[in-house]
Write a structure and sequence with these properties.
Chain A has 14 helices and 15 strands. By secondary structure, chain A is an alpha/beta fold. Chain B contains 13 helices and twelve strands. Chain B has helices at residues 2-6, 30-36, 53-72, 86-100, 116-127, 145-151, 174-184, 257-295, 322-328, 349-353, 358-362, 375-394, 397-403, and strands at 18-19, 80-83, 107-111, 131-135, 156-160, 187-191, 210-214, 225-229, 299-301, 312-317, 332-333, 364-368. The chains are: A alpha/beta, B alpha/beta.
């Protein structure tokens, strides 16, 4: 097979070599972490070491970490289990937050940033105990939300706040006019949130594992899964040990590899600069606000997203139109629609997301294929030398 | 068998205790691990990404796994939903059906020896207003079919009876239960975490409507399971987890491709080797029981010996104190009940349901035999257990009295 350029890291990333090695070792061992014999105790020790790694990544106490089968389950667990009558979630949240029954939607502005004034009005309108859920960064546009500000508002009104940080760890944020990326904080105390959702496969760990982290480890969370007393009675079921160990290993690697985020930022910036220089008719979504430094949501107005991703696939470039969960459905993204983008832009946007193994060659392959398509579709396309 | 050779570190060779706790969990078969590994690295696509070949490749692997799982229970692959494990499958099946049909039916039938996650789910539903009948079992651990039939009413939404008990290994009469449920119009759910791959199961012949499957009980990975949901006649569920709409809306969340592949491969291996493996384990089971009986008096097998998987023996050792016995056989990784409740000192509710008194329930050991158990392991276990029991009995005044012919139960203990 010829070379493929994978630029869909926000959907899923290859697990790092060290992560796979750690998991392969665990898979071969017998031992249920709940068993009291030596094999069980060894499994338990591995589980708790991973829990410490995750807790350290976000500045939590280990007992606050509840391992789940992924970000979707973690989001469902906190929204369904927090015991709050009102659930206020932004319009651009992941489907696993937005589609929990009974949520109230907080609008976002044209850049995809939550409308804090609207949130405050909603909080003030009703004194019933509430939970606010606001993501750290959007999976489709990379737009970073003012989580700490929303947390202040929520707390001032006696509400709890949850942050879906699936797209946070290991990613950088870039402030509006910043030339350099800054590590995106996923610290519970910096964000001032009560709960965080984490997903392993977005940070170099395996798919099928995530965590809900509670700032207060004694918060009484009603479980979705009932049964054995695992995870301090917050999540029954034999722990997914290899996945958890892989997650812990990935968290430790991130802590030691700040350069990976910087490399992704440089490549993304180069990609966006070239897109704008070579196809003047292209639109970069969310460009005016702080965004993840690995994500670019670009639109070729009037050319359906599906046409673009198919053309790119033929050229061996993997990107997506919106989030993977809804990839199967044709139609414009709920996130872009909530931002109020004109239909010819919202229906023509693709997501390019980079990660730890991305290379310059990946970016070049994307640019070459995408510019060819734009030219075929009648856009003005400048050649690379001209654009430079 | 390269698999066995590669896995001999599970035995004594590594200085580790001998692993005889295959009902708590099994090591991943090396052949399963080998199939899984590429899906962590070069084939890492998100199975829901429909826009590029990384996604298609992952989706294809997931669908092959789904077919492998369906094949071992005689189902169609469209009827298999991936979950994070049997606990989630049991929660989803029972809550999902109860919630979906709650306007028409409000009754659930289950059995007192079910896994804790089934019982806890039922208790939770009782708090929501559902009525639950918890059927007793006979002294051999099997459900009484006449009692079951009498318990099912036209308000019964679902009957949940496990295929194989995790503590005593007894096999419930699934075909008979299925026929009863079908006749009376209730859905039949069965927790087959301990049954799949151990005995032939056919969802159509047995009239099973929902079935829970676990990865790590059949030499697959932990953190993955499946729920079989019948399509004709269709069973409908309210999901536990929303958002994304994967698994036909019944279970949202990104599928863990390597784990799905692992569960599929584990099923394929189990299907191919089930007959030979069962025969080998039956021989080992007979050897273990025969060896212990030959050398120790007053030992009792809990649960029916005929309707039982060959990989399990649950034995009570009379006149021995339970914790002392566990301490005395530290070189064997065995358990005194289910792993989920290992840490608790309460005697097993499963054994109590068979009518055992607290002492006998407390001195029971579950021996779980499996794919990598050898004849040497069994011989070692016989020696080791015999020595420990003899040692403890030598120190026991009750054992002395029993030897002298005194009926311990007839003694009127003085009150202080």
């Amino acid at each position: 097979m010829s070379r493929l350029a994978y630029l869909d890291y926000n959907a899923g990333a290859p697990a790092r070599t060290e992560v796979v090695a750690a998991m392969a070792e665990v898979l071969a061992e017998p031992g249920n972490p709940s068993s009291v014999h030596a094999a069980g105790r060894r499994a338990r020790a591995r589980l708790e070491a991973a829990r410490v790694a995750i807790a350290e990544m976000v500045g939590a106490v280990p007992a606050g970490v509840v391992f789940t089968s992924g970000g979707t389950e973690a989001n469902n667990l906190v929204l369904r289990g927090c015991g709050r009558a009102r659930l206020m979630v932004s319009a651009v949240e992941h489907a696993s937050v937005r589609e929990v029954p009974g949520v109230e939607i907080v609008p976002v502005d044209g850049d995809g940033v939550v409308d804090l004034a609207a949130l405050e009005r909603m909080l003030a309108a009703d004194q019933a105990p509430a939970l606010v859920s606001l993501m750290l960064a959007n999976n489709e546009t990379g737009v970073i939300q003012p989580v700490a500000e929303a947390a202040r508002l929520a707390h001032a009104h006696g509400a709890l706040i949850h942050c879906d940080a699936a797209q946070g760890p290991g990613r950088q944020g870039v402030a509006l006019s910043g030339r350099h990326g800054v590590a995106l904080s996923v610290s519970l105390s910096h964000l001032d949130v009560d709960f965080l959702t984490l997903s392993a496969h977005k940070l170099g760990g395996p798919a099928g594992i995530g965590a809900l982290v509670a700032a207060n480890p004694d918060f009484s969370l009603a479980p979705i899964l009932l049964g054995g007393g695992q995870e301090r009675r917050r999540r029954a079921g034999t722990e997914s040990l290899a996945g958890i160990v892989g997650f812990g290993t990935a968290a430790r690697l991130i802590a030691g590899d700040g350069a990976a985020g910087e490399r992704a930022r440089e490549l993304r910036d180069r990609l966006e600069a070239a897109v704008k220089a070579r196809v003047p008719g292209a639109v970069v979504v969310g460009e005016a606000v702080a965004r993840l430094s690995n994500t670019s949501c670009v639109a070729l107005p009037g050319v359906p997203s599906q046409v673009q991703v198919m053309a790119l696939d033929l050229a061996a470039v993997a990107v997506s139109a919106g989030s993977a969960c809804s990839s199967g459905k044709v139609g414009e993204s709920a996130v872009l629609r909530a931002m109020g983008l004109p239909p010819n832009v919202a229906g023509s946007a693709i997501r390019v997301s980079l990660g730890w193994a991305s290379t310059e060659e990946d970016v070049e392959m994307f640019l070459s294929a995408w510019c060819d398509l734009a030219r075929r579709k009648g856009f003005e396309v400048r050649d690379a030398a001209q654009a430079a | 068998m390269t698999a066995v050779a590669k896995n001999n570190t599970i035995g004594r060779a590594s200085g580790q205790p001998i692993y005889l706790d295959y009902q708590a969990t099994t090591p991943c078969d090396p052949r399963v691990v080998e199939k899984m590994l590429p899906y962590f690295t070069e084939k890492f696509g998100n199975a829901h990404s429909r826009t590029h070949r990384y996604g298609w490749e992952a989706e294809e692997a997931v669908e092959v796994a789904r077919e492998q799982i369906a094949a071992i229970i005689g189902a169609d692959s469209k009827e298999i939903i991936f979950t994070s494990g049997a606990t989630e499958s049991n929660n989803l099946a029972i809550k999902g059906v109860a919630h979906f049909y709650k306007d028409k039916k409000n009754h659930i039938v289950t059995v007192v020896t079910e896994h804790k996650c089934v019982l806890d789910t039922c208790r939770h539903l009782e708090q929501e207003g559902f009525t639950v009948t918890y059927l007793p079992v006979q002294a051999n651990g099997l459900v009484d079919l006449a009692e079951l039939e009498a318990a099912i009413t036209d308000r019964t939404a679902i009957v949940s009876v496990m295929g194989v008990n995790n503590e005593i290994g007894v096999i419930q009469p699934l075909a008979e239960i299925g026929a009863l449920c079908r006749k009376k119009g209730a859905f039949f759910h069965t927790d087959c975490a301990q049954a799949v791959g151990k005995l032939p199961i056919d969802v159509n012949a047995m009239n099973i409507d929902l079935m829970s499957i676990s990865g790590h009980k059949i030499y697959g990975p932990k953190g993955i399971g499946a729920l079989y949901v019948r399509r004709r006649p269709r069973v409908r569920l309210v999901p536990l987890i929303n958002g994304g709409g994967q698994e036909r809306g019944m279970r949202s969340g990104t599928l863990a491709t390597p784990l799905c592949v692992g569960l599929g491969e584990a099923c394929a291996i189990a299907k191919a080797e089930m007959g030979a493996e069962a025969e080998r384990l039956r021989r080992l089971q007979a050897r273990l029981l025969g060896g212990l009986k030959q050398r120790l008096a007053e030992i009792y097998v809990n649960g029916d010996m005929d309707s039982r998987i060959p990989g399990n023996l649950n034995i009570s050792f009379a006149f021995v104190e339970g914790e002392g016995l566990m301490m005395g056989i530290k070189d064997l990784a065995v358990s005194s009940g289910s792993a989920c409740t290992s840490a608790s000192l309460e005697p097993s509710y499963v054994l109590r349901a068979l009518g055992l008194d607290a002492e006998m329930a407390h001195t029971s050991i579950r021996f779980g035999l499996g794919r990598f158990t050898t004849d040497e392991d069994i011989e070692y276990a016989i020696d080791h257990v015999t020595q420990a029991v003899e040692h403890l009995r030598a120190m026991s005044p009750l054992w002395d009295m029993h030897q002298e012919g005194i009926d311990i139960k007839s003694i009127q203990w003085a009150e202080h």
